[in-house]
TrEMBL record:
The keyword Phosphoprotein applies. It comes from Eublepharis macularius. It is found in: Nucleus. Component of ORC, a complex composed of at least 6 subunits: ORC1, ORC2, ORC3, ORC4, ORC5 and ORC6. ORC is regulated in a cell-cycle dependent manner. It is sequentially assembled at the exit from anaphase of mitosis and disassembled as cells enter S phase. Keywords: DNA replication, DNA-binding, Nucleus, Phosphoprotein. InterPro entries: ORC3, ORC3_ins, ORC3_N, ORC_WH_C. Component of the origin recognition complex (ORC) that binds origins of replication. DNA-binding is ATP-dependent. The specific DNA sequences that define origins of replication have not been identified yet. ORC is required to assemble the pre-replication complex necessary to initiate DNA replication. Binds histone H3 and H4 trimethylation marks H3K9me3, H3K27me3 and H4K20me3. PANTHER family: ORIGIN RECOGNITION COMPLEX SUBUNIT 3 (PTHR12748). This is Origin recognition complex subunit 3. One of its GO terms (molecular function) is DNA replication origin binding. Coiled coil: none annotated. Belongs to the ORC3 family. GO terms for biological process: DNA replication initiation. The lineage of its organism: Eukaryota, Metazoa, Chordata, Craniata, Vertebrata. Residues 1-345 form the Origin recognition complex subunit 3 N-terminal domain.
Length: 710
């Protein structure tokens, strides 16, 4: 609805009373697409696929951290055995005064640390000790808060301390006045003495797998953020307990182990027996995740080159967080199934072929509108073109064949990609990249054999030594054998044949350059003579007959090159690739790299953009009373100048809010106080967001702080 007016003003329109509510995520899928007939199936497929990917990711991260956890447990076991030994000698007595401390260097990817410490705490509680305390710097600004948090978690280790209110925590845990070394020692002695009693609490706390006596493990998740005095005081206090029960400290470090000596003076650090532990680097972690999630035919969902590059760039230039990379991958998955109606076919081959038979006419039309399918139809004979464009049954049969070809393409693509990476990863300067993800991006972008980097890599591969070629061929045979590719079976036999030929070569055939020629080069000290000699050797090498080794090496390189040209074609050349590949890089970038000012302005000026509630949809310049209070106040303040009169602002706000309500005078008086409170809250929220501020010029005015549009 629009209006015309000579003067500028605020116009109020009564909104539609019918409001459509979204009751589930599946409804949200159907809300965003006109083809809602399969929205529930798309949602179920997306959810099932994400569960598989999430399970695989968690198992992968557990395997990557297994070595680190095993080393930490070995350290704890050694510290525990030292405590149990009798300390008769002087050296043992000196060592017993030190607190075992593990410096765990996790890297700058701070967002991944929570998951690492959560898994570590679960592993410790399951097999070693129930007494695991995790401390964070923001929860421990002073030594008093740290001790309270420490004692509360320790003495109620099987209960989350955050579930208590402040008063309940003081009742459930020991009195705060008793948070001392003596009370801690007495508590540990009593609870370990009653370990085998029939108290239900103790049965939940202890396990038969726990060590005896169970050590107390204190984890500082972010050591750099703790204040120096808090750490010093805690270590000095807790060092008095080391003779009474086994105690181990674990310091989570994001930067460098040197931070320990910067935070702690020698008098305090001398109380610690520190051992360093290094986790897997975040780049190696990311490479492993990409290798298991993306470079496999196990999951049908794929990322295009631009989308993958967006996620990698955010990882490299923002946070180095593998956790955020996986969240970006999940967002891509959700966006693909939400926005693409044919994503219902993005599943396993057998299931997708079954679903093709139940496609509706509208879905068949969606297939015909795909750019890749249009190119496929144009390449067919005119008679078949007519059948594909008019007959749904024929289209479904052809779609099943095309989906089979797409799955076969993936089964062949990834083994050949790994074989090519085996050849190029050992080359100097890495022409096609050191990591396989770099090679994968190059293959996704264009035909890789047409690039200069590929030509350079092939020339270097033609110069590899015999031992290197044998090792690479063995690796390629293993890759293809373990893969599910059917069309590459003959390739395995061919590679094995080449490998046997290399092994059967005589030693005399391996020599590429005569020793006399190399000695002759070394004698040439004059630059002109040296250059002349090199040119003569190059010409003679070109004219001379190749050795058996060189001929065989050329054959192997040509065979690998033929595999690359046959199976590493870009996915855009495959028909129906849109079903499995998510290519909306700009949409993903908007979600992950959102501009805060633009996002806030859009949310306040047009709440329908995010909430997708039809009641909030209004024409430009109109204000709906169904909008949130802060949105109404924000749109009204945009009409004001530098100073805003609060009384006028309140009257305009009240007019908008009560526009669609027909009330008598009694109810209206009762509502004024409520509207007044809602207005105050909306103004306070705008002040918190930085749009307005109080001014000393006029007491009943506020100053506007933002100008211009986004």
């Amino acid at each position: 609805m629009s209006t015309c007016s000579v003067s500028k003003g605020c116009f109020v329109f009564k909104p539609n009373s019918k409001k459509r509510k979204i009751s589930s995520t599946a409804d949200y899928f159907s809300e965003g697409n006109n083809d809602s007939e399969d929205s529930e199936l798309r949602f179920d497929t997306c959810q099932l696929l994400w569960k598989r990917i999430k399970s695989e990711t968690e198992q992968l991260q557990e395997d990557l951290n297994k070595k680190l956890y095993d080393n930490l447990i070995s350290f704890l076991r050694q510290s525990h055995s030292d405590f149990k030994e009798k300390k008769t000698e002087w050296a043992c007595r000196m060592k017993s005064s030190e607190i075992p401390a593990a410096a765990l260097v996790l890297g700058v990817n701070v967002t991944d640390h929570d998951l690492t410490f959560k898994s570590l705490s679960e592993a410790l509680c399951e097999d070693i000790t129930p007494f695991v305390v995790s401390l964070r710097s923001k929860e421990c600004p002073g030594i008093k808060h740290l001790l309270q948090k420490f004692m509360a978690q320790l003495m109620g280790c099987h209960i989350e301390v955050d579930s208590y209110e402040e008063g309940e925590c003081s009742k459930a845990s020991p009195n705060r006045m008793r948070c001392s070394v003596a009370s801690l020692t007495d508590w540990y002695r009593n609870i370990t003495k009653k370990k085998y009693t029939d108290t239900p609490c103790k049965k939940e706390t202890f396990s038969s797998r726990h060590w005896e006596p169970p050590p107390v493990v204190v984890i500082f998740k972010d050591m750099e953020s703790f204040t120096t005095k808090v750490l010093q005081d805690f270590i000095i206090i807790i060092s008095q307990c080391i003779h009474e029960f086994p105690l181990v400290l674990i310091f989570g470090i994001a930067t460098s182990p040197v931070i320990i000596h910067k935070l702690l003076p020698h008098s305090v650090s001398s109380l610690l027996c520190i051992e360093l532990f290094q986790s897997l680097s975040c780049k190696d972690h990311l490479s492993t995740v990409i290798d298991k999630l993306l470079l496999t035919s196990q999951f049908p969902f794929k990322l295009s080159e631009k989308v993958l590059q967006v996620l990698i760039n955010i990882f490299l230039y923002h946070d180095f967080s593998v956790h955020n990379f996986i969240k970006g991958f999940q967002l891509s998955l959700l966006e693909h199934f939400y926005s693409h109606p044919l994503s219902v076919l993005c599943c396993d081959l057998q299931e997708s072929r079954k679903r093709v038979n139940f496609l509706s006419h509208n879905q068949c039309e969606n297939i015909r509108r795909l750019p890749s399918f249009r190119r496929f139809v144009e390449s067919q004979a005119s008679k078949k073109q007519t059948v594909l464009l008019t007959d749904d049954a024929c289209l479904k049969e052809e779609t099943q064949v095309l989906l089979q070809d797409l799955h076969t393409y993936h089964e062949n693509y990834f083994p050949v990609l790994r074989c090519l990476h085996a050849f190029t990863s050992s080359l100097p300067n890495y022409p096609l990249g050191k990591q396989i993800r770099e090679l994968h991006c190059a293959c996704l972008e264009r035909k890789v054999w047409e690039t200069e980097d590929y030509e350079s890599a092939i020339q270097l591969v033609r110069m590899l030594a015999k031992d290197e070629l044998i090792a690479i061929l063995q690796k390629c045979i293993e890759i293809i054998t373990l893969s599910s590719a059917r069309c590459l079976g003959n390739s395995t036999e061919k590679l094995e044949e080449y490998l046997d030929h290399f092994k059967n070569l005589e030693a005399t055939d391996d020599q590429e350059e005569p020793v006399s020629s190399l000695k002759e080069i070394q004698k040439k000290t004059d630059l002109y003579r040296l250059q002349k000699t090199l040119l003569e050797m190059k010409e003679s090498r070109r004219l001379k007959k190749l050795t058996k080794f060189e001929m065989l090496r050329f054959e192997v390189v040509d065979f690998i090159d033929s595999l690359v040209r046959s199976y590493l074609v870009p996915p855009e050349t495959q028909t129906l690739h849109e079903v499995m590949y998510f290519s909306m890089a700009s949409t993903l970038r908007e979600h992950l790299n959102a501009a805060p000012r633009i996002a806030v302005h859009t949310a306040l000026n047009n709440p329908y953009f995010y909430l997708k509630n039809e009641a909030l949809e209004s024409n430009t310049g109109c204000i709906s009373n169904a909008a949130p209070d802060i949105c109404i106040a924000y749109k009204l303040h945009l009409e004001c100048g530098r100073l805003i009169n609060l009384v006028d602002w309140l009257e305009a706000f009240s007019t908008v809010v009560t526009a669609a309500e027909d009330q008598n005078s009694t109810v209206k008086d009762q509502m004024e106080e409520i509207i007044h409170a809602r207005f105050i809250r909306a103004v306070s929220e705008l002040e918190f967001l930085g749009f307005i501020k109080p001014t000393k010029q006029k007491t009943d005015h506020v100053a506007r702080l933002t100008w211009g549009s986004c």
